[in-house]
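Quick one, probably user error.
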């Protein structure tokens, strides 16, 4: 008997299925999220006759649960990863790792597996590489372990059975787009397959308290391919970021049920694998030119860590009727807002000038605490007057041209002092709240951007 083939349109945001394509999902209201999913009926039906026995054993009082954060977390040999995860890998958690092709996702997970397998068993399941190919990569990374086991399964039911039988301390799935369930006959990587496979892995992780790392491919927009509901199901979502032309990568948490999403981890891609960068500020400031106008150093907070970064501004006469505004690593709308504030409150005009702004090293200056550094870099490039190379600038700029306070200033000043800077320009209101005697820095407070010209 021929299998009956049906076509359904599934929303990648909420998972709602429709018999026909619509521009707007009727369930969540998102536009252009319905994708076609071919489903073949196998004739198998799930049993609905299972009865659930409800008793007092299904209910536990919260005070009766004895657990500590240290006992529930598994440490890795990468402190940068531990920081991003909130202190280590939580038992029974599911971590979704996404990133561009070649970012180092599989390399990172193989290194983690090697370290953990020194004391406990690890199961590495790959649907993209053969076990021989994984062995070649492990040999390149000098990875050897008696407790690291490899598998090339792609059927999720067989994978779950293998996990239950072997009971490892850690499971790696590389990748979720290659896994498929026998109960759904659509192709691997489809919306229904990804959703069903993730649900079964989630059940295994919570039932047997086994942490599972899942590798997810990304689409052309940079988001993890598959239904958005997959990111809601997992406990942690990590992204590998960074320019392909640069050797170092940034690991950032987009979601974390067991820690902060503000922390970042920096890694350097070498021939021996990923090496953590313990001093990101030093790396980001390497090769900084001295005595060049338009350059300014700022200090931003990444969770509990202060990181120094460089802002560059290039101001040139335009050759077109409309001047260009180009930014890299800096919010485009925020840059236009700061240009308008400079024109209105400082009296400079940019109507015949092109403005190019760049955050060196691929760091995203998303917070407003870098506003003052951007303004000073623009004015330095406009007047062709370089800023002192030993100066760091921190502060938020308001629409009235005022310089507003920033948080965690003491941590920022300690990082500036540690890296050898001698001068800090901060908001005047912050200056009144700190003890200048605690720092060897020359600390200058300004209240309005007009005061920049006096400096």
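Nope, works fine. Designed sequence:
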């Amino acid at each position: 008997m021929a299998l009956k083939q049906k076509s359904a349109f599934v929303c990648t945001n909420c998972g709602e299925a429709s018999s026909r394509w619509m521009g707007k999902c009727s369930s969540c209201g998102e536009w252009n999220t319905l994708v076609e999913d071919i489903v073949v009926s196998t004739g198998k039906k799930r049993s609905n006759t299972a009865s659930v026995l409800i008793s007092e054993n299904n209910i536990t009082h919260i005070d009766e649960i004895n657990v500590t954060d240290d006992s529930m977390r598994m440490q890795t040999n990468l402190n940068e990863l531990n920081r991003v995860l909130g202190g280590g890998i939580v038992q029974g958690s599911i971590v979704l790792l996404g990133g561009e092709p070649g970012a180092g996702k599989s390399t990172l997970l193989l290194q983690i597996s090697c370290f953990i397998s020194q004391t406990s068993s690890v199961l590495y399941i790959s649907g993209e590489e053969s076990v021989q190919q994984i062995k070649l990569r492990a040999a390149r990374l000098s990875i050897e372990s008696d407790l690291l086991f490899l598998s090339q399964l792609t059927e999720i039911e067989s994978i779950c059975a293998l996990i239950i039988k072997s009971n490892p301390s850690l499971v790696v799935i590389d990748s979720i787009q290659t896994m498929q369930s026998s109960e759904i006959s659509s192709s691997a990587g489809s919306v229904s397959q990804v959703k069903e496979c993730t649900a079964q892995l989630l059940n295994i992780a919570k039932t047997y308290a086994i942490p599972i790392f899942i590798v997810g491919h990304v689409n052309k927009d940079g988001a993890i391919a598959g239904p958005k509901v997959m990111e809601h199901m997992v406990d942690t979502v990590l992204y590998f970021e960074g320019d392909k032309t640069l050797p170092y990568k940034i690991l950032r948490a987009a979601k974390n049920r067991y820690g902060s999403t503000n922390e970042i981890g920096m890694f350097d891609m070498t021939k021996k694998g990923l090496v953590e960068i313990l001093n990101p500020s030093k790396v980001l400031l390497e090769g900084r030119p001295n005595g060049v106008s338009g350059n300014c150093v700022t200090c931003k907070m990444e969770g509990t860590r202060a990181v120094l970064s460089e802002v560059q501004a290039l101001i040139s006469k335009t050759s077109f009727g409309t001047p260009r505004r180009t930014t890299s690593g800096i919010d485009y709308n925020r840059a236009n807002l700061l240009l308008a504030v400079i024109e209105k409150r400082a009296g400079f005009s940019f109507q015949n000038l092109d403005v190019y702004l760049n955050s060196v090293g691929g760091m995203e200056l998303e917070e407003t605490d870098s506003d003052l550094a951007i303004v000073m870099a623009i004015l330095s490039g406009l007047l062709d007057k370089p800023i002192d190379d030993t100066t760091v600038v921190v502060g938020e700029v308001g629409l009235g041209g005022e310089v507003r306070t920033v948080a965690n200033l003491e941590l920022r000043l300690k990082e500036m002092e540690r890296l050898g800077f001698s001068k800090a320009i901060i908001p005047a209101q912050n200056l009144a709240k700190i003890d200048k005697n605690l720092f060897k820095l020359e600390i200058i407070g300004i209240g309005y951007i007009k005061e920049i010209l006096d400096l």
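The mean pLDDT is 87.
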